[in-house]
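#onboarding

Welcome to the new folks! Below is a worked example of what a typical request in this channel looks like: someone posts a single protein sequence, and someone else replies with the predicted structure as tokens. Don't worry about understanding the tokens yet, we'll cover that in week two.

Example request:
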Amino acid sequence: MDIGFKPKAEILPTHTPALFDAAVARAAELLRAGELVALPTETVYGLAANALNARAVSRIFEAKGRPAQNPVIVHVASTEMARRCVTDWPTLADRLAEAWWPGPLTLVLPRSGKIPDIVHSGGHPGLWPSPRGAKREFVRPDFADERAACAGKSRGQNPFDTRWRTIANRH
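Example response:
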């Protein structure tokens, strides 16, 4: 099966602070160039791309065999970064982010024009800050253009189904 790109792998050591910083810098460079990066999440490894680059995000769908109707989550480093990804940031979003970020809450809000259609699959993007670990380094404010859209192995179901979109649109 031809998935449209030739995978290449660089495995970067991260066992010292200096090596970790070098790995983060290399991953950010690859994300800026439109490449995919595999990186650790809180539970498994995820595949990341620059969420502002439609072609890069489409490569996640290609590599994972992910259905086009399954959106990917946009990872953000801060509330300020999240605000730049949406057209409307209601007071409720501030209250929820203050109470739950970083943590187990994904906010689904109307996207800004910066977020390509492929990211949100016809709905609104899910915004989530990684609470800890290496992945958070890839969406730091100094890597503001490297908002990572991560996707686990596709299971053919949409995590943001119509019920959640309806709830998001009411608030």
